[in-house]
């Protein structure tokens, strides 16, 4: 499989997304550290702090300024219509532009019920519209986001031992596959290894600072990092 990576070894346009409701949380500290570190490294950083934006996660007719069929709502048909006629709602169009302009997208979130928080899932539901980010035979290796990279940065309640093969919660790679394969790779993103901070509520202040510094160190050379093999279902 041929993978084209944009801007490796140089400055990038990076979209940094945050989906934690508490600004003083460790997850939000990771988010703020990412913004500062990437900016200091010379990258152009754009943000979507979803709770601060009061982002509406429910996908419905409010996604569009006009509709194709007022009598029956079929989201994908309306998305294709909006692509053709430029009728996405302004807040949605702004988020779409952020994704399209980025070379790297990083999501920051707490792992809730083995997945992303509802606000982040709803952001993906609304932003990644058919005809604009996928469709017409363009999926996975031929996806519309081909040449871009994506990465997960997340916090957990449980310790690392709980997320190993055979562990209490199962292999973290399996937990994240619906996101990394079914969302990122589906639209063409190459996936970087996830940054996981385990059991952050149960470690010392020094351990949390060490986790932040390790993240900052990784981000300083993120432009040279190669994608991982996520694996199919």
Detailed description of the structure:
The protein is of the alpha/beta class. It is built from 6 helices and 6 strands, in the order βαβααβαβαββα. Helix 1 (26-40) links the parallel strand 1 (13-18) and strand 2.
> Roughly how many Å is the radius of gyration?
18 Å
Distance between the termini: 17 Å
Shape: globular
Number of strands: 6
Can you describe this structure in just a few lines?
By secondary structure, the protein is of the alpha/beta class. Helix content is 33%, strand content 13%.
What topology does this entry show?
Blueprint: E1 13-18, H1 26-40, E2 44-49, H2 75-85, H3 90-101, E3 104-110, H4 118-127, E4 149-155, H5 172-184, E5 190-191, E6 195-197, H6 205-220
Parallel strand pairs: 1-2, 1-3, 3-4, 4-5, 4-6
Helix pairs in contact: 1-6
Summary tags:
single chain, 233 residues, alpha/beta, six-stranded parallel β-sheet, 33% helix, globular, disordered N terminus
